[in-house]
Specification:
4 domains, Cytochrome Bc1 Complex, Chain A, domain 1, six-stranded mixed beta sheet, 32 helices, alpha+beta, 25 strands, about 40% helix
Length: about 950
């Protein structure tokens, strides 16, 4: 994030931030580099730009949800800025309060102060202690979290729209009366230090930390927002209170509210909640004026399966006048039609791309190319330098600049398709870019010229100021196996007493309402067997299509040809029988549309271009070229990458988990090797595609600004000629026996913290109604986070861990249970004892009435939130089809939760969960078992 500060709990993933990652993290995650890290830039940051120059663009180019004219805004007498944006996608609301302060204002020697205070904002305030806050969070059933950046600290809640007054009350109490006791800080310090250990175990974090210290030397951005263990050891509640009193004020905050709300009454509610909080005189802010560094070189060992050659350059911040130009330059450099990406089809890199990571006052750009483990990094680095130097001297193609501008403007239209995503983009525009609305960026993008892009490239891509880095993969040590634990452990833990909510929260949240049915989508089956699901929603003039061909590589790949699926999937990006790779990408750019083909496929397009977009998607999905030259390159690249993967700690960790619970020679244990990959021929690819891609195993979900009739007509026209050949294959993996206890440690030289999984198979099938009782019980055990038993006993009370969770998982024929946490090596055993004891307690006694009530409220009130983005709606339907469950399964679950008793939950845990059979797998330093 520079946060690294997902400190607060959340009931379910915040739909706009799967880890709150920007385009940089997306690029690096895609390359395998940023696994486990997050950056501070809110989602959609790529779609924004600084204050526009020139005349305003036609209003048709600015989505209503992003236009100043379409929102209610006010500044209260105390200085609080409020922006209210209606969105009728679902009966859901998101509040996002942005305090205009971050780590840049931390006291000297205490770089993590803003981050530590963010943690303490969840430790209680006057009129709302930490236990009440946790209980309210559970009853809301929504998502709540926070992040800390150099410039802004954000707190965001998503819940049912009717619960908006509760969300506002929470934020008002935290703004004006935070408790900040030494006792609470001493407990939270253990958790935040575990977070530091987690991030220091990520080579990507360590790389970005070094990069930032060089690029922003001598400025407040020099130190990462995370903080350090030594600084936290010196920190006390008095220091945190001083920071809070200086900066947490209504006149230093922007409150964004989006969702299914009445703007007029909402503003009245805001005034009632925040109006009496006094404004403050704010301190002078530190200046951020970085000086371009001289060339530096970094080398870093990693636990990644492949290596990376990278070049980083100083670039403008988000408030800079030339930010829009820099953003377009970034898009062009990262384009799949660009010279940098072309290193991949040429066989010179396993992956290549460019990304822009802007902070408020400064930023950097990062070019990267991946090379196989053991390969010569200098050659990859030379190729990378060569491409960038040519661009610096000769510029970029004008048509790529125009394509990037079209895509940036068009992509703004998709912002309304997520309630929380809409809040994020408004927060980004106002808090990070000093704009009046996200729509202000349209004119800035339109004003960008190829000449301006080339001038900026010539200035920025200067090797004299580049930070060069080579990240070299190291192999894991051999996993160390051992016997299981067995026997009963004891862990003293006195259950907390029931939490009495404040009167205002009790009145709003105590009543458990009987669930109502969710309207079903339009469902039809095309003559060729494709199942089409349509959910119309007219919150934006866009349509999204998501599809899946049900496949099972473990059963469908021929013996000795493991890896043929990966090769086949990779070749979809190399064009069709009508358009080669570049021509196909140009056709998408011209619409513009965002498309992916393969076993999982998708399309995002503006409403008027839906038919064109679906035609291109079908062309790619049904008529891929699979060119021989590309096949040769892709096969070699995948074989080289797999050689490193098989020795990487991450892969060995996943393999150890599977090996611990599956019988020998289970199909799911099959894995590709360099030999099996290189044995695959192009004919093997063609045969695999012809047999594994079938319309009668395909589901397509269309959501957005469309009618069912129009969606069916367009999809049938594009996909109707696709025919299935031969009998439908059985893709269900065989059932597995119940697993037994074991333990294994996968060494990881890059980690200072251990990653721990306790897991086992369970005999319950996905169609068994006991599944609902296990899910309800898991909300008590590990799903409710701050209010859950695991979170209470492993983090809040003891500080053993930073995160802990548990989950049940099912396929059509298999089930498993997993409990996971991250801990320092000396705390691994202590955390396991506490976790297993909590699991045993679920079997020995029913949940308390208070716990059961919290769990029911959390699950029942969360159901509408699962439909607060078009992506989530499509994902839910595809998941149900994959599990062969009815589309109204969510309603059946709600009825089961509503009627469940504590005895029902206890009985399900006693019947299906086996604490003595849990396997323990650890990745990292040798633990204290």
């Amino acid at each position: 994030m520079t946060v690294h500060a997902s400190s607060a709990p959340h009931q379910q993933s915040h739909s706009s931030r799967t880890g709150a990652k920007n385009r940089l993290s997306g690029l690096l995650l895609g390359a395998g580099l940023l696994a486990g890290t997050a950056l501070s830039v809110p989602v959609y940051a790529q779609q924004t730009a600084p204050q526009p120059s020139g005349p305003s663009m036609p209003s048709a180019l600015v989505p209503a949800a992003l236009s100043s004219a379409q929102v209610v805004r006010a500044t209260l007498p105390n200085g609080l800025r409020v922006v209210i944006v209606p969105n009728r996608l679902a009966p859901v609301v998101t509040t996002e309060i942005n305090y205009l302060v971050g780590s840049a204002e931390a006291p000297a020697g205490f770089p993590g102060t803003a981050h530590a205070l963010e943690h303490m904002m969840f430790r209680g305030s006057k009129g709302l202690d930490k236990d009440q806050l946790a209980a309210i969070g559970s009853r809301l059933g929504g998502s709540y979290n926070a992040d800390t950046t150099e410039d802004v600290t954000q707190y965001f809640y998503t819940a049912q729209a009717r619960d908006l007054p509760v969300l506002l009350k929470i934020e008002a109490l935290r703004m004006n009366g935070l408790t900040l006791s030494d006792a609470d800080w001493s407990k939270e310090r253990g958790a935040i230090e575990q977070e530091v250990s987690r991030d220091l175990s990520s080579p990507a974090y360590r790389y970005l930390e070094q990069l930032q210290s060089i690029l922003f030397a001598g400025t407040p951005y020099e130190k990462d927002a995370l903080g350090t263990r030594p600084s936290f050891e010196k920190t006390n509640a008095a220091l945190l209170r001083g920071f809070y009193e200086k900066w947490y004020a209504p006149n230093n905050a922007i409150l964004i509210i989006t969702g299914d709300i009445n703007p007029v009454t909402t503003l009245d509610q805001v005034k009632e909640a925040f109006g009496n909080i006094p404004r403050k005189t704010l301190p002078e802010r530190h200046k951020v004026t970085p000086v371009a560094p001289t060339a530096h070189t970094i080398t870093l060992p990693t636990d990644y399966p492949v290596g990376f050659a990278t070049l980083a350059f100083p670039m403008p911040g988000r408030t800079a006048q030339d930010f829009a130009t820099a953003d377009i330059l970034s898009d062009v450099l990262g384009s799949q039609r660009g010279a940098l990406y072309d290193l991949v089809p040429q066989g010179k890199a396993l992956f290549a791309g460019f990304e822009y990571a802007p902070k408020k006052e400064a930023g950097f750009g990062l070019a990267l190319a991946a090379f196989p483990k053991g390969a010569d990094s200098s050659k990859t680095m030379a190729d990378l330098r060569g491409v960038l130097e040519k661009i610096r001297k000769e510029g970029v193609p004008a048509d790529l600049v125009e394509a990037a501008k079209r895509r940036e403007v068009a992509q703004l239209q998709f912002s309304a398709n997520s309630v929380s995503g809409l809040a994020a983009i408004w927060s980004n525009a106002l808090a990070f870019q000093n704009l009046e609305s996200p729509g202000d960026v349209v004119a800035a993008y339109q004003a960008v010229t190829p000449e301006a892009v080339n001038k900026l490239a010539a200035s920025l891509l200067d090797p004299a100021h580049a930070v060069t880095a080579v990240l070299t993969p190291e192999s894991s040590g051999k996993p160390v196996a051992g016997k299981g634990f067995g026997g009963a452990e004891s862990f003293a833990s006195t259950p907390d007493k029931p939490v009495k909510l404040p009167d205002w929260a009790e009145k709003a949240l105590a009543q458990l309402e009987k669930p109502t049915a969710t309207p079903l989508p339009d469902v039809s089956v095309l003559p060729n067997g494709i199942k089409l699901i349509v959910w119309p929603s007219h919150v934006s003039h866009t349509v999204q299509l998501t599809g899946e061909v049900r496949q099972q590589a473990a059963l469908q790949e021929p013996a000795g040809k493991e890896g043929v699926e990966d090769i086949t999937e990779s070749l979809f990006s190399y064009g069709t029988t009508t358009h080669d790779r570049l021509a196909f990408q140009k056709a998408l750019d011209d619409i513009p549309a965002w498309e992916d083909a393969g076993g999982n496929f998708s399309l995002q397009v503006l409403t008027p271009d839906f038919e064109k977009g679906v035609a291109l998607l079908a062309e790619n999905e049904l008529h891929p070229a699979f060119p021989d030259k590309a096949f040769q390159v892709v096969r070699m690249q995948l074989a080289q990458a797999q050689a490193g993967t098989l020795m990487s700690p991450g892969h060995l960790f996943g393999k150890a988990i599977q090996t611990a619970i599956l019988p020998a020679k289970d199909p799911a244990l099959r894995e590709a090797t360099p030999v099996s990959i290189m044995s695959v021929t192009r004919d093997d690819v063609l045969h695999y595609y012809q047999t594994a891609w079938r319309p009668d195993l395909t589901t397509i979900v269309v959501t957005g600004d469309i009618t069912p009739e129009k969606a069916r007509a367009v999809v049938e026209k594009a996909f109707g000629d696709w025919k299935a050949e031969g009998p439908k294959p059985d893709l269900n993996l065989p059932k597995v026996p119940l697993s037994k206890a074991s333990r294994a440690n996968v060494p990881d030289k890059s980690s200072v913290q251990d990653e721990v999984v306790l897991t086992e198979t369970i005999g319950l099938q996905v169609s068994d109604p006991d599944r609902y009782m296990l899910r309800l019980g898991n909300e008590v055990l590990g799903g409710g986070l701050f209010s859950s038993r695991l979170y209470r006993d492993l983090r809040v009370k003891t500080g053993y861990v930073y995160t802990v969770g548990s989950s049940f998982n099912w396929s059509r024929t298999r089930g498993s249970y997993a409990l996971d946490y991250g801990a320092d090596p000396d705390k691994v055993g202590k955390a396991r004892l506490a976790a297993v004891q909590d699991l045993r307690t679920m079997q020995s006694a029913p949940p308390t009435e208070d716990e059961l009530s919290l769990a029911k409220a959390s699950l029942l009130r969360s159901l509408p939130l699962r439909r607060a983005s078009l992506r989530a709606i499509a994902g839910e339907y595809l998941s149900l089809i994959n599990l062969d469950l009815p589309l109204d399964d969510t309603d059946k679950a709600a009825e089961a939760y509503y009627k469940a008793s504590g005895a029902d939950v206890q009985a399900a845990f006693k019947k299906w969960v086996r604490p003595d059979d849990l396997a323990q797998i650890v990745k990292g330093p040798t633990p204290n078992w």
